[in-house]
Structures are given as structure tokens and as C-alpha cells.
Automatic annotation (TrEMBL):
Belongs to the Dps family. GO terms for molecular function: ferric iron binding; oxidoreductase activity, acting on metal ions. Signal peptide: none annotated. InterPro entries: DPS_DNA-bd, DPS_DNA-bd_CS, Ferritin-like, Ferritin-like_SF, Ferritin_DPS_dom. It comes from Thalassospira mesophila. The lineage of its organism: Bacteria, Pseudomonadati, Pseudomonadota, Alphaproteobacteria, Rhodospirillales. Residues 19-155 form the Ferritin/DPS domain. It comes from the Bacteria. Pfam families: Ferritin (PF00210). This is Ferritin. Transmembrane segments: none annotated.
């Protein structure tokens, strides 16, 4: 059945493609945050272990919202490690860095998601896609707050 939501097919495809990048970045950040939750050590263990759990739990909900928005636009959501690897701008962590380096990597990851999401606004404006713009605004607010909280842990 044809999709008739007031956004033409090309714009829906372009927006869904951009959302796929946001989804891939979000999933890569989810995986990195979960990794750090499991493997953090040191004097800040309890604080970081708990904080990282809250963050990866929030990210798990976010990837579902992003994928469902992609589906609402009539596209299939990327859903494999190889697709995420191709689409994400967040580098994979293969080791177990020190706690302070974990925090720095997560700040950088949240900032990356913010920039990836922000890049979609012109497409949303062009297509009059307020629903996607609203979702992006919500995601950006959460990532900016999380980056600020993580960054605060690094201050003297």
C-alpha cells in the first residue's frame, strides 16, 4: 500500500537514510557504553558502573524509537553489525581503556551522535517533517546533557 503522509518518497528515503546513520551511531554508542559498564575498574567503579548502566538503558530505548521512525517513513532500518560498522562514525573500542579514557570516549561518542542528528535538520525542514525533527531534538537534548555530565567527571 502506498504511503501518503505528506512527505514525498525521495524525501522519506533521504531522511530514513540519515536516520540510519543516527541509529548506527546510537547503537555503536550503546555497545561501547555497555562494554564500559561491564569492564570499568578503579576508584570510581561504583559511580561509573551505575551511570553507564543508566546511559546504555536509555540508548536501548533510543535505538528502538529511531528504527521505528525509519519504518514509519517506509524504509527498512539497518540492523546488523556490518551495516552499523559501515554507517557509524563512532570508532569501535577493542580493548579496555582506563576509566578516564572511557569517559572521554563516551563524551566524544555523544558529541558524534549530536552532530549526525543535527545534520538531518535541513532535510526535515525541506520535507516539512516535524515528527523526525522533534525526535532529533529530543535525542540531541539527551546526548548534550549526558555529554555535559560525563565531561563534568573529567574536571579538576
Amino acid at each position: 500500500m502506498q504511503i501518503d503522509i505528506g512527505i514525498n518518497e525521495k524525501n522519506r528515503t533521504d531522511i530514513a537514510t540519515g536516520l540510519g546513520r543516527v541509529l548506527a551511531d546510537s547503537y555503536a554508542l550503546y555497545l561501547k557504553t555497555h562494554n564500559f559498564h561491564w569492564n570499568v575498574t578503579g576508584p570510581m567503579f561504583q559511580t561509573l558502573h551505575t551511570m553507564f548502566e543508566q546511559q546504555y538503558t536509555e540508548l536501548a530505548m533510543a535505538v528502538d524509537e529511531l528504527a521505528e521512525r525509519i519504518r514509519s517513513l517506509g524504509a527498512f532500518a539497518p540492523a546488523s553489525f556490518s551495516a552499523y560498522s559501515e554507517l557509524s562514525s563512532i570508532p569501535e573500542e577493542k580493548g579496555v581503556p582506563a576509566a578516564k579514557d572511557m569517559i572521554k570516549q563516551l563524551v566524544e561518542g555523544h558529541e558524534t551522535v549530536i552532530k549526525t542528528a543535527r545534520a538531518l535538520y535541513p532535510l526535515c525542514d525541506e520535507a516539512d517533517d516535524d515528527a523526525t525533527a522533534d525526535l532529533l531534538t529530543q535525542r540531541i537534548q539527551i546526548h548534550e546533557k549526558t555529554a555535559w555530565m560525563l565531561r563534568s567527571l573529567l574536571e579538576a
